[in-house]
Amino acid sequence: MGRLDGKVAIVTGAGSGIGKAAAKLFAAEGAKVVCADVTGAEAATATEIGPAQAAAMTVDVSKAADVREMMERTKALYGRLDVLFNNAGIEGTPAPTPDYEEEEFHRVMHVNAFGVFLGMKYGIPLMLETGGGSIINTASVAGLVGFPGLVAYTASKGAVIQMTKTAALEFAAQGIRVNAICPGVIRTPMVERFTAGQPDAEAQLTMAEPVGRMGTPEEVAALALFLASDESSFVTGAALPVDGGFVAR
Ligand code: NAD
């Protein structure tokens, strides 16, 4: 028996890192999984899972037409939506606040915050058709504490946490749970881009983790699985760190 038997899940950002690990784990636990990404890499994740349990969709989460179409195609294909993992995100180019490019600020907010809004806007009505479901939004420890150089990223992840709480309250009585996860430093292509060309950056990020190492995408996916499953039936409106103790400092 899988922990997500009979459930249909959408995972955004499924072509890489945390989203890829989650798509594979959700499928291993019995879910049918829509693997969505903007790069085309979602196809490889769906192929790895296999056609009986996964479908790939090329989606830009920051475009309403794409997100609406993803919901329509999910309904046509699988008939329902039980789990929505709004996970796609970008880090943006770091700079001190006065030097932060205005266009870059909008780009990061557009994908990370507006993208999560669109996922909930178009996903919630589909979930309600079959009595509810579970939404998991990927925020970050950067939504809980400040990070110099990351004004847009921290703003976007703080927004994800607040939107999570709002939607959780709006739909608590209608069977939809909405939670945010706040990963610490997780070894994914995102962090590799961040540390590229900076010899000390990896050591510094590792030292920032009280457990003395970076997390793995699978460790984050495990929390997403708990929130996706009925085991978390009394958990909603939460922003849960999965961070090796990062925000406990
Ligand atoms: P990643 O770069 O490996 O994966 C992110 C995926 O999102 C990529 O496949 C990318 O193509 C996709 N994506 C980006 N923009 C998109 C768009 N507009 N539409 C659809 N897909 C899009 O990074 P990751 O570390 O796996 O990040 C996943 C999530 O976790 C992000 O929201 C990130 O902010 C968050 N996060 C990561 C860390 C970390 O340390 N890696 C820490 C905290 C939070």
TrEMBL record:
GO molecular-function term, one example from the UniProt record: oxidoreductase activity
Its keywords, alphabetically, are:
Oxidoreductase
The UniProt entry, under PROSITE patterns, shows: ADH_SHORT
Key word Membrane present in the record?
Answer: no
Gene3D superfamilies (UniProt xref): NAD(P)-binding Rossmann-like Domain
Q: Which SUPFAM superfamilies match?
A: NAD(P)-binding Rossmann-fold domains (SSF51735)
InterPro entries according to UniProt: NAD(P)-bd_dom_sf (IPR036291), Sc_DH/Rdtase_CS (IPR020904), SDR_fam (IPR002347)
Q: Name one Pfam family in it.
A: adh_short_C2
Query: Quick one: signal sequence residues?
Result: none
What is the similarity comment for this entry? Belongs to the short-chain dehydrogenases/reductases (SDR) family.
Report what the protein is called: NAD(P)-dependent dehydrogenase (Short-subunit alcohol dehydrogenase family)
